[in-house]
TrEMBL record:
Residues 1-31 form the signal peptide. Residues 61-297 form the Periplasmic binding protein domain. One of its GO terms (molecular function) is carbohydrate binding. Belongs to the bacterial solute-binding protein 2 family. GO terms for cellular component: outer membrane-bounded periplasmic space. The lineage of its organism: Bacteria, Bacillati, Actinomycetota, Actinomycetes, Pseudonocardiales. It is found in: Cell envelope. This is Sugar ABC transporter substrate-binding protein.
Length: 335
């Protein structure tokens, strides 16, 4: 019995010794010679916890009131979340594509892109996705966003917003609507007019103008309402064009009333004075802020917001009954 017990204890002692040796090896592997992490693990943690750089590339132009609010939102998110935000804009689709290519070459941590002309941007966006750079699209191009490999789209549905504008005019008893498109090739603007046509109970016609030529914009709108006095509603798709429409209608002695997409200080004043009936606000501050937040969450926690569907920022209708409350935020550049 004694001999059996002795032999049984030897394997046990050998097993405990081996276990102690293995434990020491595990501790050494985890800590390294000076308590360091295993090779490669530190780099991964540093990448996950380091500063994230996000490039926001829009189709706007420098000084544009609308895009300045988008930029304000993106930069505010950067400050709040510790993200480096780089904003660039160009209204020319080819130049915008080159800005995207430059950001890809710099290996930014995330891209936010507005797609007014999706076909022109498709190769550049796809190169970003292939390079492993997460992309979120904003403002325009909702229907093509998933096709190009973007995580999600942030903006308003232009057709839905157009329907709301058309119905609001119909509720005012208007019968003939002129929808003013200020950028050729911008699919979102055509969708707005198509939606207005759907929501409006009367006739709708489109008028193409060039926003880069404000004098011509005003002249064309004035000519349209003069040649057809039955036009009693004018819908502009940009806050700057709205001011030109108001002047054009006054010069033509027309009874048509103006409403617009988007806000600025002039539109707020015009709504208060009754020169503009309402503004369809897509809350573009959110189009700058939310994508930066979403990319931070994606990098740090693998979150994908939206569940495969766009994240809508509008429309929100601004009229005389709520313009005082909202106008204060327009003045500070966040609406």
């Amino acid at each position: 019995m004694k001999s059996k017990s002795t032999h049984g204890s030897q394997p046990k002692r050998r097993w405990l010794a081996a276990l102690g040796l293995a434990g020491a090896l595990v501790l050494t592997a985890c800590a390294g010679p000076e308590g360091e992490e295993p090779a490669g693990q530190g780099d991964q943690n540093q990448q996950a916890q380091g500063e994230l750089t996000v490039s926001v590339i829009s189709h706007g132009t420098a000084g544009d009131a609308f895009w300045n609010v988008v930029k304000n939102g993106a930069e505010a998110a950067g400050r709040d979340l510790g993200v480096q935000v780089e904003y660039a804009a160009d209204g020319d689709p080819g130049a915008q594509a080159r800005l995207i290519d430059n950001a890809v070459a710099q290996r930014v941590g995330g891209l936010v892109v507005s797609m007014a002309n999706p076909d022109a941007l498709a190769p550049s966006i796809r190169r970003a996705v292939q390079a492993g750079i997460p992309v979120i699209t904003i403002n325009s191009g909702e229907d093509r966003s998933a096709e190009f490999g973007a995580l999600t789209h942030v903006g308003q549905n232009e057709t839905v917003a157009g329907v709301q504008a058309g119905r609001a005019f119909a509720d005012q008893g208007k019968r003939k609507l002129l929808c003013v498109i200020h950028e050729a090739g911008n699919i979102g603007l055509n969708q707005r007019c198509d939606g207005a046509r759907e929501g409006f109970s009367g006739q709708v016609s489109n008028l193409q103008v060039d926003i880069s030529n404000p004098t011509d914009v005003e002249s064309r709108i004035r000519g349209a309402v003069q040649s057809d006095p039955s036009i009693d509603a004018v819908l502009t798709l940009n806050s700057q064009v709205a001011a030109r429409a108001v002047s054009a209608i006054e010069a033509a002695n027309s009874n048509a009333e103006v409403a617009t997409f988007d806000l600025n200080a002039d539109v707020v004043s015009a709504i208060k004075s009754g020169e503009v009936l309402f503004a369809v606000d897509q809350q573009q501050y959110l189009q700058g802020y939310l994508p930066v937040q979403f990319l931070k969450l994606y990098r740090d926690n693998a979150n994908v917001v939206g569940g495969g569907r766009p994240v809508l920022t509008g429309p929100d209708l601004v009229e005389q009954d709520n313009v005082d409350r909202i106008g204060q935020y327009v003045e500070r550049g966040t609406r």
